Amino acid sequence: MESDDLNDTGRSSESETPSGRTRGRSENEVYESARRRGATQGERERSWRRSWRAASPLTKVGLIAAAVMAAGTAGSLVAYVIVSAHQSSVAQMEDRPRVIVSRPPELLGTVACYVTDKAIHWSTGAMRIWVRNIGRGDAVSAFLAGPQFKLVPDVKTGVPIIDEIPPINDRTCQLKVSPSSKMFPVYAGQEVFVDMVQSVGVQSLIKTGSVSVALGAPQPEPQTPAGQEPGPIRVAKGAAFQLYAPICVYYSDRSGALYATCRTYRLNVGTPLGGPYSFSCTGAPVKGSFEATIGNFCDN
Fold it and tell me: At 61, is the secondary structure helix, strand, or coil?
């Protein structure tokens, strides 16, 4: 015997109302409703076109002008926001300090160097470094890094750390460097100098997987680590060298933002030995003046 009741999955989707009409909508009714909406939309468009054709030329000009003004107002707002943000960024850049090494470093004494089987030894006299703030803001904490002297042989050894000029690039100016000397302010438009004391250093010629450069007080001859072959880098005694001196000035503004400028200089000794920059490392004192090199510069 069949039951007159249906479970939830078998119940009809349309139920009878007291008036006898179904609560559901047939597909024909849905289609007819959509057709009427489309007809209404089409009628609006036809009405708008009839109104436009019937409008006077002056009315048409007014409508066009209103539309253009509305679009122009929105575009002007976007342009204003972009220009304002750019002007704010430019103002911040213009108001920042900008400290540079304003003159080539002055060698107040002499340079001397000599070569042994294990190292290149060098010493320099006192130097004076000039810096100037060419920006509009004050540099409240500035300090120098360098000169980091480097003797580069005219006759190459095949070892890059011996043969190549110390590199300076954008990354150099982005380094976080701790001051090794006293910090000083450089106010907007001000030029100051810093006197550097005599410096000495030794550059190892022993191949031990790395080549070291030591600065400061007179350095002893480097020693070969136990269990390793010395494998010295061959440099002739009395060989000709050129002396390079990279210098950086790091500084901050009143808000604490950090900046830096670095440049490499080369000693001009004014002698004809391989050009004005070459001199022999025989231990004899050498005088000269520093000049900025082409490239080897960064400024942030």
Answer: helix
